[in-house]
Design goal:
Radius of gyration: 18 Å
Largest sheet: 6 strands, antiparallel
Number of helices: 6
Shape: elongated
Amino acid sequence: MNARDAGLAALQARIGDSFGPSRWITVDQGMIDRFADVTQDDQFIHIDPVRAAGTPLGGTIAHGFLTLSLASRFAYDCFEDLPGQRMGINYGFDRLRFLTPVRPGQRVRGHFTLTDVAPRGDDGIMRTVALRIDIDGADKPALAADWLSLALFDVD
């Protein structure tokens, strides 16, 4: 059995298993401001604490895409490459919902549940995980999504 097929069999046996949680990451106003600079998304609810204080939000919040972008870091904490895997590629998302705003100073972490795996070509495995990013002390997560990633293997 080649490495791709062995990895596929190993993952199929783990469908429904949870991975994580990852370590906590604190999202502070500096991180939010740097993300705004890089993405050129300078909407005031993210970068102007005085103006944002006068909104129903009561202050600044992290960009939803900033919170989502931390998923890669969380995945590094929770998953290891499969034996023989040469690389992994972010393939995309199905169903992505931003559920609770992340405020400066809050901590977030990722939690994953393997929901599906399938062969992809001769050298790949498509993995789907249910991603949840939790906010420390909050009742609802910051976001929930179905995340697709592709693991590629050397062909024997």
